[in-house]
Design goal:
It is a single chain. It contains 20 helices and eleven strands. By secondary structure, the chain is mainly alpha-helical. Among the domains are: 122 residues, Glutamyl-tRNA Synthetase, domain 3 (Alpha-Beta Complex), CATH 3.90.800; 74 residues, Glutamyl-tRNA Synthetase, domain 2 (Orthogonal Bundle); 46 residues, no CATH class; 95 residues, Arc Repressor Mutant, subunit A (Orthogonal Bundle), CATH 1.10.10. The strands form five sheets. A three-stranded antiparallel β-sheet has the order 3-4-7. It has a two-stranded parallel sheet with strand order 1-2. It has a two-stranded antiparallel ribbon with strand order 5-6. Strand 1, helix 1 and strand 2 form a beta-alpha-beta unit. The relative contact order is 0.08. The model has no long low-confidence stretch (mean pLDDT 95). It binds glutamic acid.
Length: 499
């Protein structure tokens, strides 16, 4: 059997971690099985639709490098893949169900439904939802009222009568979830006769979703666990049409570290926020692929191709997944380390420009070359892209001369710092031309009796303006002897003046 699955977002918000997890698992499942991954836009809720959210969906997929096999902007045998372009179909199927008796017309007005709701609330009734008033209308009366122009919705008739040969128990709907096992719902507990087709002729989620999954040949529905309560209803709908339901697999919840459903309270959730904060798509994909699925023991890093080869529904966990921001940051650091200098410079450059690293504009050719060369100094130390330019300010403009305290190591006092800096001054032309090993040897040889750290501290402060910086010898090489000497001289002058 060819596997066909789908990601079916409603463009009513920005793409977020939960959506990405659903999309990615569907993508990986299809790829792992040589199947087809479909993107379908469920945009029937026109009040909450916003074209910006639709664009955000496409942009997010493009940034992540996830492609769909069939869907909007790509086409396929079941086109169109945008529900608002398929409304005629849903009407046709709702009418078919009406014919078959699996659905009925409801003429209740919005005011009546509101009144029932309010009355029940006042009476603290346990009953919620529709009171099924129109369920008993005979087909002739129903057809007559519709023909006379009365407005109506079409509702699903949830079977309530006893199962033929069912032994008198309450009517139930059963299905098997691939992850959660056998599930059974009392029909009386299912949303009472939900609307399938609204009075404006637009379908509700339930109708459009089931009709499309059927027409698009979807074999597996992998979706978030919050949809589990809709599934009995969908199963009833499939049976009412006489269709075979797909395999359902409700994915484990994604929680924050406090055990509550991941939300804005925990931090960034939209993919846009992560992108802007300097996360790499590879890191996000790798981390999100682990939210509720285990691959091999003892391994953290997987490329998309490796995930595609390994994914399997048998590897899903039942337990909720915990989203750990620190862990994601660690993953990002790992992917930053895998980039070569050109790639890393290109990726982090927008943050450098935005942060004013090049004096408020784009870098000139020389600055760009220096920036690229500096990647080797920061690659091992950055977890997010903006960390990179944040560490490199001293390469592009002279730092303020640090206050005396910053230049003076604990041992040796101002005199010691002066001695170190004077010696460093002599060594700079050699250090600027030496590799790390050679530089260290030179310093050890010449700074006899002074601990390496105590010797380097004033030099580091003079050259970078701070006590903590990217590797010093590499920085000296990139700055070049002339700029180093100017900065050392400024520090020497400050120290002397403060004596
Ligand atoms: N449109 C629904 C959503 O926004 C689809 C749920 C499903 O996969 O059935 O997630």
């Amino acid at each position: 059997m060819e596997i066909r699955d789908r990601y079916a977002p409603s463009p009513t918000g920005l793409q977020h971690i939960g959506g990405l997890r659903t999309a990615l698992f569907n993508y990986l499942f299809a790829r792992s099985a040589g199947g087809t991954f479909i993107l379908r836009l469920e945009d029937t809720d026109r009040t909450r639709y916003d074209p910006a959210y639709e664009q955000n969906l496409y942009d997010t997929f493009a940034w992540l490098g996830l492609a769909w096999d069939e869907g909007p902007r790509r086409g396929g045998p079941s086109a169109p893949y945008v529900q608002s372009e398929r409304t005629g179909l849903y009407r046709k199927y709702a009418e078919e169900l009406l014919e078959k008796g699996g659905a009925y017309r409801c003429f209740c007005t919005g005011e009546r439904l509101e009144r029932v709701r309010a009355e029940r609330e006042a009476a603290r009734s346990a009953e919620t939802g529709y009171d099924r008033r129109c369920r008993g209308l005979g087909p002739e009366e129903s057809a007559r009222r519709a023909a006379a122009g009365e407005g109506f919705t079409i509702r699903l008739r949830i079977p309530l009568e006893e199962e033929p040969g069912g032994g008198g128990g309450p009517r139930v709907t059963r299905f098997t979830d691939k992850l959660l096992g056998d599930i059974e719902w009392k029909n009386a507990d299912i949303n009472p006769d939900p609307v399938l087709l609204k009075s404006d002729g637009f379908p509700t989620y339930h109708l459009a979703n089931v009709v499309d999954d059927h027409l698009m040949g979807i074999t597996h529905v992998l979706r978030a666990q919050e949809w589990l309560s809709s599934t009995p209803l969908h199963v009833i709908l499939y049976r009412a049409f006489g269709w075979e339901p797909p395999v359902f697999c409700h994915l484990p919840m994604v929680m924050g570290q406090d055990g509550k459903k991941l939300s804005k309270r925990h931090g960034a959730t939209s993919i846009d926020e992560f992108r802007r904060a300097g996360y790499l798509p590879e890191a996000l994909l790798n981390y999100v692929a682990l939210l509720g699925c285990s691959y091999e023991e003892g391994r953290d890093l997987y490329s998309l191709a490796e995930l595609e080869a390994r994914f399997s529904l048998d590897r899903l966990n039942k337990a909720p997944a915990v989203f750990d921001y620190k862990k994601l940051e660690w993953y990002n650091g790992q992917y930053i380390r895998m980039k070569n200098s050109e790639e890393l410079a290109a990726l982090s450059l927008p943050y450098a420009v935005e942060g004013g690293l090049f004096g408020g504009g784009e870098p000139g050719e020389e600055q760009r070359a220096l920036y690229t060369a500096a990647m080797g100094l920061v690659r091992e130390r950055a977890n997010l892209l903006p960390d990179i330019p944040a560490k490199l300010g001293y390469l592009f403009s002279d730092p303020a001369v640090p206050p005396g305290g910053e230049l003076i190591p604990k041992k040796g006092g101002a005199e010691g710092a002066l001695r170190s800096l004077r010696l460093a001054r002599e060594l700079i032309p050699l250090l600027a031309a030496a590799d790390d090993e050679e530089a260290e040897r030179l310093v050890k040889e010449r700074a006899e009796g002074v601990k390496l750290g105590d010797f380097l501290m004033p030099l580091r402060a003079a050259l970078t303006g701070a006590r903590v910086s990217p590797p010093l010898f590499g920085s000296i090489r990139l700055l070049g002897a002339r700029r180093c000497l100017t900065r050392i001289d400024a520090a020497l002058a400050a120290l002397e003046a403060s004596r």
